Amino acid sequence: RSLSCSTSPLEPHFTECISREQETFRCWWSPGSYHNLSSPGALRVFYLKKDSPTSEWKECPEYIHSNRECFFDVNHTSVWIPYCMQLRGENVTYFNEDDCFTVENIVRPDPPVSLSWTLLNISPSGLSYDVMVNWEPPPSADVDAGWMRIEYEIQYRERNTTNWEALEMQPHTQQTIYGLHIGKDYEVHIRCRMVAFTKFGEFSDSIFIEVTEIPTKESTIPFTLVLVLGIVGILILIMLIVITQQHRLMMVLLPPVPAPKIKGIDSELLKKGKLDELNFILTGGGMGGLPTYAPDFYQDEPWVEFIEVDGEDGDSGEREDNRASDTQRLLGLPHPVSHHMNMGCSNAISFPDDDSGRASCYNPDLPEQDTLMLMATLLPGQPEEEEASFDVEERAPASSERSLVQAQTGGPQTWVNTDFYAQVSNVMPSGGVVLSPGQQLRIQESTSATEEETQKGKEDEDSKETEEQKQKELQFQLLVVDPEGSGYTTESNVRQISTPPSSGEGYQTIHPQPVETKPAATMEDNQSPYILPDSPQSQFFSPVADYTVVQELDSHHSLLLNPPPNQSPPPCLPQHPLKAPMPVGYITPDLLGNLSP
Amino acid sequence: SLVFIKTTQSKLFLNQLISLLFMLYMVAACKAVPISDLLDRASQRSDRLHSLSTMLTRELDSHFPPIGRMIMPRPAMCHTSSLQTPNDKEQALQVSESDLLSLARSLLRAWVDPLLVLSSSANTLPHPAQNSISNKIQELQEHSKNLGDGLNILSGKMGPAAQTMSLLPYRGGNDLGQDKISKLINFQFLLSCFRRDSHKIDSFLKVLRCRAAKMQPEMC
């Protein structure tokens, strides 16, 4: 309690009243500057306990004169009841309003006891560590009964410094101190107070924390050594194997990187720039597909697995199957019996059959009968075959073969060599898409070659199969045309499809001719849904919309496919080398570079 | 789309079922909450209540220490002084649990109205920390209400003796004074009364809790 600010001599007053455990309390007084009152008994302590309106001042129950202390024991102490203290002299009463209090507000708990600490951990850098400090609550405080609730404040500092660090108050009897430094000594002490009150008790005795450096590096040394030795050993082993060229082990350790290896084709052709020859071979330019007696280019690599090629690149068998099923579905044909020619398989290229399901072996599910029929009917010179052509179920395979042979021995036919892409020529209002057959590559050589081979008959089933492909493709295209509802493409539609000839060199295409087609269900019809190929003369002009050549770029960098014939080129457009159409229907990347103005 | 509708319906149904099961579980679980847990929660709330009141008093005093000193608190004039409560540890340890709870509830109930008065006065309190004080009074009201509800539940589990309450009506009126000084003084006085009673409530609940936690001495 602070002294009143007055210049008058200090009156006797109470210096402090403290309770340690909320069960007893003491008050100390001082005579002030009235030294003659300092002798024991000169001043008497009186207190008023306001527990009833009729309470009176009573004298201190227990004096401790040596301390000038008045002690109130358990019987005289009540909580939540205000006390007022008075000092009385001979005839004078010294009373201060400030000396009234309630016991709970003067509680200052005793300090905690039994402080101890344990090392929790050391940081990986070995520079700092954490410590857990434990203690006991002050024995005088009855914490177990819940009569007092205490919270603790830890303070610590380095030895020989003056500033204490305080941690946050908390009611538990342990706390962790983080981040102490190795090699430094620390001093820790604790004080406490009642929860939600303001007066702290005294500090406890200090304890000292010392942690010296602990060498911990040795444990890591053997580990790194083992690691390094292990890696070195493995490297040596690999090198030995490589040097001694044990092929088997090399295969195990360093398996060969698979490169595209197509049987019968020199891998040289697969390099850049030789696309033409490759295409030639693949599209049956030579013998119609890959010859069976292809030179074995990969003799010394027995583990080579070949990519199977059936005249198309990619997954041959699946595409055929899809087409077949699409065709069948569209035509409404029952799934044909597949016991007939296994032509593809008889000449099958040997292959390891673990990769694709069918690989090069042609899908026995192919409806080869009706495709053959279609092939037959596609030949314009064989009208007498038409009626029989669609009656798939009734045709024996042999007869179909026969007809095919006859068909093949017909006049020179131009076969449509479909390319690997089909172009969308037009989108009809009803939503159907009109495809046009792909561009024919090297139609001259291939036509003559195919003519030869068809005349030879069944010699090369591969080509037949490829042609079947194309027929089916065509048929597919035809049937796409079908759903327009018009039933057939008329002459006028054809004119829509075809583009005005802007140049004729380099590619020949086939017009899709107007054909009366019926819905696929009615197969009794004599009419054959087929595309009559044009006469060869017509092939040399009028490019159908296969691939349209980029003629020009206009000022907005958009590609002009077919510039209006009578317009002069816009003046701002510079002459660039691509006025002439490109010979091949698609743009290779190096040519694309030339496109940009 | 029918399948889709069916799946959403079944999903809704499933959700409802799950929420119903969850509620049933919660109800069952609530019924099964042991008294010690309830006491624990209650004592935490009373702890908070008392801390808030201490902070409020300090905040009030921080700006007007002279007033705090001049007008000594006359706790005998608190409206709850008529309630007979244990005044020391021995007495507190001898009172039965039900009585302790009943005392706590009575005290808490007695402060519902005065807290309203304090709250409305805090809005116009002529004090620099008026805003903070006003917020704390709001918090006091909330905690007080929550604690009251919790104690009601507790009393239901502890028998009829715990359910009796003493009425301690507040007769101080709605208004703490006309002039600034008397307003402040009365505000502070009322708050000191509240603080005393919040400590009583807290102490009684702590004693109760420690008695109930005989098996788990670490709770105390």
TrEMBL record, chain A:
Subcellular location(s) per record: Cell membrane; Secreted
Region described as Disordered: spans on this chain: 444-472, 485-512, 558-577
CDD domains: FN3
Topology term for the membrane: Single-pass type I membrane protein
Transmembrane segments: 221-243
Pro residues: bias regions: 562-574
PROSITE patterns: FN3 (PS50853), HEMATOPO_REC_L_F1 (PS01352)
Family statement drawn from the similarity comment of this UniProt entry: Belongs to the type I cytokine receptor family. Type 1 subfamily.
Annotated protein name in UniProt: Growth hormone receptor
Organism of this sequence: Amphiprion ocellaris (Clown anemonefish)
Source lineage: Eukaryota, Metazoa, Chordata, Craniata, Vertebrata
From TrEMBL, chain B:
Family: Belongs to the somatotropin/prolactin family.
Domain of life: Eukaryota
Main location: secreted
Annotated GO MF terms: hormone activity
Keyword DNA damage: no
Cellular compartments annotated: Secreted
Keywords: Disulfide bond, Hormone, Membrane, Secreted, Signal, Transmembrane, Transmembrane helix
Coiled coil (UniProt feature): none
Annotated protein name in UniProt: Prolactin
Cellular-component GO terms for this entry: extracellular space
Gene this protein is translated from: PRL
The organism of origin for this protein: Amphiprion ocellaris (Clown anemonefish)
